[in-house]
Write a structure and sequence with these properties.
Number of helices: 2
Distance between the termini: 32 Å
Shape: globular
Radius of gyration: 14 Å
Strand content: 25-35%
CATH topology: Sulfite Oxidase, Chain A, domain 2
CATH architecture: Alpha-Beta Complex
Structural class: mainly beta
Oligomer: single chain
CATH class: Alpha Beta
Number of domains: 1
Helix content: under 10%
Length: 112
């Protein structure tokens, strides 16, 4: 992914969809009907928040794989940037690739 610094970096981590599936969130064949109204809210240590629909996180819907990274260019994320970062490849702006991820929350759109 190319960061705001204009340099390409290689991030390593786990697909967010794998984490959600292991946590029992409706993914794959279960992601239909009312489950499509669910979204994930990612919260950073500094209070920054970003939302993702479950469909854009699921490989049966989306072509890109969004990951929760813990390494950049072969090293752990630096202090003040980690321990985790959401990486959204192919977006024109890195605004949803948030640093210092602390919490992933699943909600239904109708809950708000």
């Amino acid at each position: 992914m190319t960061d705001r610094d204009g340099k390409a970096h290689r991030y390593t981590g786990v697909a967010v969809s794998d984490i959600l599936q292991k946590a029992g969130v409706a993914m794959g064949k279960q992601l239909h009907g009312e489950n499509l109204a669910q979204y994930m809210l990612a919260k950073a240590g500094d209070g920054y928040e970003v939302a993702f629909s479950l469909a854009e996180l699921d490989s049966s819907f989306a072509e890109k794989t969004i990951i929760l990274a813990d390494e950049v260019d072969g090293a752990l994320l630096p202090n003040g940037k980690g321990p985790f970062r959401i990486i959204v490849p192919s977006e024109k702006k890195p605004a949803r690739s948030l640093w210092e991820v602390r919490t992933l929350i699943i909600r239904f759109g109708k809950d708000e």
